[in-house]
Structure formats: C-alpha cells, structure tokens
C-alpha cells in the first residue's frame, strides 16, 4: 500500500512543487507555517484541484491530466484538528455514519471499536466526551469509511499535554495494526519522533528531503530543519540485563550503554534519543569522567557546528563549537570518543 504524489500548484503567495512517496505506516509532513502542507493534503484529498501532477494510491490514479476523482471516490479518511463529530448523534451513530451503506461494515465496526476501546463511549454524545475521546471517535469514524489512506491534519494540536499523552498510544497502535499509509501533518517534533517512519520535510512549497526519520535526525544538514535543539540521533538498543544498582545494560550497534530509569524487561527493544548538544568529543579515551557512556566513534561529516559520527552502523550527531572542531583537528575519517551525557527513551 502506498501513496505516490507529484503535484504543482500556484497561489499568489505559494509556488508548490512537491514529489514524494508515502508507504504503509506514518509519513509526517513537516515544515514551517505556510510551506504548503495543507495545500498538499487538500490536493490529495480532492478538496483542491492542483494545476498539474499525478496522485496515485496503490497504483489507482486519483488525479492526473485526464482524471480527477471526487473526494468520495478517493477513499481517504480524514481526521482534523477538531474532531468534527455530529453533535446530535451518539458516538455509535457517528461511527456508523460513513459506513451506513457498506456491506460487511458490522464486522469492521466491532474490530475498530475494540481496537480504539470505544465500547464504553458508544451511547454518549460528543458534548460529554473529553478531547482525547472525541479524537479517538473521529479516528474510528475515519477508519470505518474503509479508507485506502488516512490523512491526519494536526490531530493533537487542539489537545492539552495530558490528552495528547492519552491518545498517543492509540495512534501508535493504529500505525502498527492498520496496514494503511497514514499522512500526518504536524509541527511537533515529539509527535513525529514517536509516530513517523517516513518524514517529508517541506520548505517554501518544495520537498527538501523525504526519507526515514532516523536518517534525517543524524544528518547535519537536515536535522536543523526540525529545530536547532532537536538535532541528534535516534538509535536502536536492546536491554541486555540489569545491574545490581538498577541500571540497565543496553546493547547498541555502537557498544553497550548503561542507562537509568528503564522499566522494561530484559530483552526489550528501545528507541534511544541522543541529542547533539548532549554529546562531547574527545580524541583520546577519557579518564576520570562522571559520564558513564563513552563510545568509540569515527567522524563521517561536519557541517556548521554539527559533527556526524559513525558508531558501528549507527549515525549520531555531536554539537561542537567551531573552535573545538579546530582544536581537536576533527575531519572525516578521524577516530574519537563520544561522551554521551544523557539519553532518553522514545516510547514504543
Ligand atoms: N485558497 C488560497 N488562496 C490563495 N492562497 C492560498 C490559499 N491557500 C493557501 N494559500 C497560500 O499558500 C500558502 C501555504 O498555505 P498552506 O495552508 O498550504 O501552508 P501550511 O504549510 O499548511 O501552513 P500551516 O502550518 O500554517 O497550516 C499560504 O501562505 C498562502 O499564501
């Protein structure tokens, strides 16, 4: 299942020319306000007719020079920032509404109600639901329209932090259980970190890069697009065992790390986030440090104050002042040690 997009459109303030592929899983459209994210998803959904291009879903053409399917014909489920439920209908009637004429809809209904744990809410009206419950209902309703693509336009933006935390596991479950491409528009790096597998970075109507989140985060040229403080790696680890003092020994491609506050069983996989400004470099093996995690690395790329390191087959970034880059004579190919001051675990 995949979505293929190539489109051009001109507005007085925007010259849009985007090309990307969204495979199954969550593809985040990420970029500053006004870069053309909504225009892109409106064109994909059939709410806007672009000047030219081709949009296809699993090889089925939704738009090209000779085709322009209506929004209903496209089979796209839409989840907006505000849930947009029918206020006079119960949750159950809201959920059943898009599938009221579809055969086998009953079977899907039971499955989706179970997946999103909507059972206890079925007889309630939207006005009695929390923001998170409303969004869960909106997601269920979008799925019950039997979509081939789910478009989520900042679905958490209107929720407070507590509600966001409540709904995030449902979005992760959706990503893992529903074999659909999900296009997810967001300004939030934490959301993108937790949910996205693919990221389409946009700026001024163009796609500046489309690829895996891990590659973007460890690329010294692209990582700053997510925000200056967000540059840094996302690496894979596995909890090997626990030390008597409770610290976890975590195996990564770059070596073993000792981490605090890990509460999963030995054998569990973890996604580790290591921010570039939490990494210090040394040309020689440091001694007498309080930092527990010092891994051998080699420099692969330098851009601005960001040094990209190879640790086994993982890539990591260190943020270093130009003065230190010069003093340490860092350049591609140089071996060094990465002193990692702090690591956080990205859930799921
Ligand atoms: N209907 C329209 N008519 C004229 N210009 C428009 C229209 N819709 C969008 N634009 C122009 O396209 C630009 C991009 O808008 P768009 O909503 O796609 O950006 P965005 O990346 O989704 O922004 P945000 O993150 O703020 O929602 C706008 O700044 C505006 O100049």
UniProtKB/TrEMBL annotation:
<dbReference type="GO" id="GO:0005524">
    <property type="term" value="F:ATP binding"/>
</dbReference>
<keyword id="KW-0547">Nucleotide-binding</keyword>
<keyword id="KW-1278">Translocase</keyword>
<dbReference type="InterPro" id="IPR027417">
    <property type="entry name" value="P-loop_NTPase"/>
</dbReference>
<keyword id="KW-0813">Transport</keyword>
<dbReference type="InterPro" id="IPR004606">
    <property type="entry name" value="Mop_domain"/>
</dbReference>
<feature type="domain" description="Mop">
    <location>
        <begin position="288"/>
        <end position="348"/>
    </location>
</feature>
<keyword id="KW-0067">ATP-binding</keyword>
<dbReference type="Pfam" id="PF00005">
    <property type="entry name" value="ABC_tran"/>
</dbReference>
<dbReference type="GO" id="GO:0016887">
    <property type="term" value="F:ATP hydrolysis activity"/>
</dbReference>
<feature type="domain" description="ABC transporter">
    <location>
        <begin position="1"/>
        <end position="229"/>
    </location>
</feature>
<keyword id="KW-0997">Cell inner membrane</keyword>
<protein>
    <submittedName>
        <fullName>Molybdenum ABC transporter ATP-binding protein</fullName>
    </submittedName>
</protein>
<dbReference type="InterPro" id="IPR003593">
    <property type="entry name" value="AAA+_ATPase"/>
</dbReference>
<dbReference type="InterPro" id="IPR008995">
    <property type="entry name" value="Mo/tungstate-bd_C_term_dom"/>
</dbReference>
<dbReference type="Pfam" id="PF03459">
    <property type="entry name" value="TOBE"/>
</dbReference>
<dbReference type="GO" id="GO:0140359">
    <property type="term" value="F:ABC-type transporter activity"/>
</dbReference>
<dbReference type="InterPro" id="IPR005116">
    <property type="entry name" value="Transp-assoc_OB_typ1"/>
</dbReference>
<keyword id="KW-1003">Cell membrane</keyword>
<dbReference type="InterPro" id="IPR050334">
    <property type="entry name" value="Molybdenum_import_ModC"/>
</dbReference>
<dbReference type="GO" id="GO:0015098">
    <property type="term" value="F:molybdate ion transmembrane transporter activity"/>
</dbReference>
<keyword id="KW-0472">Membrane</keyword>
<dbReference type="InterPro" id="IPR011868">
    <property type="entry name" value="ModC_ABC_ATP-bd"/>
</dbReference>
<keyword id="KW-0500">Molybdenum</keyword>
<dbReference type="GO" id="GO:0016020">
    <property type="term" value="C:membrane"/>
</dbReference>
<dbReference type="InterPro" id="IPR003439">
    <property type="entry name" value="ABC_transporter-like_ATP-bd"/>
</dbReference>
